[in-house]
Amino acid sequence: MARRLEGKVAIVTASTQGIGFAIAERFGHEGASVIISSRKQKNVDEAVEKLKNKGIEVMGIVCHVSNAQQRKELIDKTVQKYGHIDIVVSNAAANPTIDNILDTQEQTLDKLWEINVKASILLLQAAAPHLKKGSSVILISSIGGYHPQASMAMYGVTKTALLGLTKALASEMSPDTRVNCIAPGFVPTNFADFLVRNETIRKSIEEKTLLRRLGTPGDMAATAAFLASDDASYITGETIIVAGGMPSRL
Ligand code: NAP
Question: Is residue 195 part of a domain?
């Protein structure tokens, strides 16, 4: 595997399993020091152990992305140990309801905004003073950001917001920091466990996918590593859809 991220310091949120973990692992294999985090200490400890066993330089920190103190610790401890930050992947999201938007409780709307959008902004506010020239930010949106689906409509709308946030931050953080976004298709993780549990849904999604398969965390990680690397040094403000050719946009 190419070592495109040698010497880089990368924070990945929500990274003790699923897509975030795969991104951290890929970054580590490409030479980065990775800082992984999630809400539960046990998950952080187990993920750190797995990555260390693969020879990856890793630090684990508990961070619920909507907890201000824990976000501060994530940045502070990273800077204390490594001195600067090269890459931030904002990957955490919540999908707490299947209600229609017009039936969604206010506190649920707040939670969706808090975790899926606001926490990314606040994390980047804290990280920005430590981001080096040539640094890279990656937001994780969703194919659902292009077509919010009925069963996860408001979640989809928060993911649409990340497409705009990517453009706005790319402008604000230029020229030293590139800001890009990944919109994954359907990946069978805990977050999308209906894909694992429900054969009919899984098959119907596979049929809508030109490549006739679901995505893997590794598919997303490969794209994240590209965007974080100098191979993407002239790309900013863009969203890459990694969805096997599912209907998205022109
Ligand atoms: P996942 O496999 O369920 O993993 C979620 C990870 O996030 C875990 O490590 C979990 O650990 C952590 N986490 C959950 N809530 C958190 C919070 N508030 N703060 C910090 N960490 C938190 O999920 P995934 O499928 O990889 O999803 C990752 C991202 O991809 C999300 O932004 C999601 O919207 C996006 N996405 C996923 C799919 C898909 O089909 N899977 C499709 C499109 C987009 P703890 O329990 O220890 O916190």
Answer: no
Tokens of 162: 């990340």
Determine the atom of ligand 1 nearest the C-alpha atom of 116. Answer: 32
Q: Whose CA is nearest to atom 3 of ligand 1?
A: 191
**Separation of CA 12 and ligand 1 centre (Å):** 11
| Cβ-based neighbours of 55, under 8 Å, separated by 6 or more | none
Residue 155 annotated to the active site: yes
Residue among 21, 34, 39, 155 to mutate when testing ligand 1 (max atoms within 8 A of CB):
39
pLDDT digits (tens, 9 = 90+) for 161-196: 999 999 999 999 999 999 999 999 999 999 998 887
Burial class (CB in 10 A: 0-12, 13-18, 19+), 108: middle
Q: Does 73 fall in a domain?
A: yes
β-pairing, 9-12 vs 33-38, is: parallel
In a domain, 3, yes or no: no
Which residue's CA is the closest to the ligand 1 atom numbered 39?
Answer: 187
Which amino acid appears at position 231 of this protein?
Answer: D
Domain, as residue range, for 100 = 9-189+217-240
CATH of the domain at 24: 3.40.50.720
Q: Which helix (H) or strand (E) holds 99?
A: none
- Rounded distance between C-alpha atoms, residue 245 and residue 250, angstroms: 11
Q: Whose CA is nearest to atom 19 of ligand 1?
A: 64
Number of domains present in the structure of the chain: 1
The pLDDT tens digits of the residues spanning 34-59 come to 999 999 999 999 999 999 999 999 99
Whether a cis peptide bond, with omega within 30° of 0, leads into 175 is yes
Residue 231 located in a structural domain = yes
